[in-house]
Amino acid sequence: MLTLGGSGDMGRMAVAILLESPEVSSITVADKNYERAKTFIKMVGSDKLSAIGIDVVEHDNLVQLISEYDIVVNTVGPFYKFAKPIMEAIIEAKRNYVDICDDWKPTLDLLEMNEKAKNTGITAIIGIGASPGITNLMSVLACKELDEVDEVITAWGMGKTKMGKKPNYFIKPKKFYKQFRDSAPIANAAIVHFFYETLGKIPTFRNGKLIEIESLTEALPIQFSGYKDAYACHIGHPEPVTLPRVIKANAVSNLMFAGKKPTEIVRQYREKIINNELTISEASIKLEKEIKKIRRNPLILKEFINYPPETCVIVTGLKNNKRKKIAIGCYRNPYGEMAGDTGVPLAIGALMIIEGKIKEKGVLTPEEVIDPEEFFNRYAKYCGKNLSGSDILIRREVDL
């Protein structure tokens, strides 16, 4: 197995989970920074691991490397830069693939490669992380309970969650980056992606068609029965462009509920990027510092008391000719915050391909090929001892 970007935050978690599987005999951690990859495998200390240096924009070298492995796990971000060239190399090398692509535009680009991938006989699952990924599969579960679906809201934010135990092979960020303390600050790829999704127009699905709206446009609050209404805004994730391909609905949106004050801070940084006062990388480094301040500020944190589960979906429609709202949230998660929420689903997707449980060919989204019940039963293993999918998902049904 080859993990592109395997020494990054999401990659390290995926590697930790994959190392536990007897189905995985070896993992090569590939990184543009070879020393970083070597440091990671030395810290883990598993005989299954090896390191290699690769720049993913060097197409021929990448194809040659990929050709040596059975399956590729990709966490190289931001995906708006690297998703398409990596998929081109995957198809040329004819190898199975999973990634956590969370940018809507490259998601569309990758889906356009479906026929090429299908013709080569490979399985390429894209966007199997938290959002997209977990949100897509919760949407499938919620929509199954309705006879007709009107609206699907996928959402993620600052909700409360309980974390599982740290995986044996996972290296904590603080411990890992301590090895590189003399290095200049590097922008977090996840935050770079986040700012990219705040700029300009983003797609959302309304009245049966895709339209464009301004990113960070305020939305109606997230209303999850039993929890506080949460301030929300639209953000440019892939769910509105992928879910309507599988679920018949009039509207699909992806919302962020990160609190009113933090959202205003993001809007301020966005304006500085637009006005060329900051680059995306500079803004990302500054925002990461702001996030640390927010987590220490009791006045801001007070807003998040009794917020909905940090990853949730709210679906409205008809059930037995009555209007209903079905809300499903994941209120227990793996260890590691974003790394766990994203890296664990990625590893599960890869293992399901390896085990032959996903046989479809082409470029595919989670909702097309992954059984949500099996997925959440497997995911629950990392959320706490002796848990099943029903233990980690909270469900609310409300008459409208």
Mean pLDDT: 94
Beta fraction: 15-25%
How far is the N terminus from the C terminus?
Answer: 49 Å
Poorly predicted spans: none
Taking strands numbered 1, 2, ... along the chain, how are they ordered across the largest sheet?
Answer: 3-2-1-4-5-6-17
Give me the Rg, rounded: 20 Å
Q: Give me the CATH fold name of the largest domain.
A: Dihydrodipicolinate Reductase, domain 2
Domains counted in the coordinates: how many?
2
Q: Which CATH top level class of the largest domain fits? A: Alpha Beta
Inertia-based shape: globular
Helical segment count = 17
Number of strands: 18
Helical proportion, percent range: 25-40%
Which architecture of the largest domain would the CATH scheme give at its second level? Answer: 2-Layer Sandwich
Largest sheet: 7 strands, parallel
Which assembly state applies to the chains in this document? single chain
Class based on secondary structure composition and strand pairing: alpha/beta
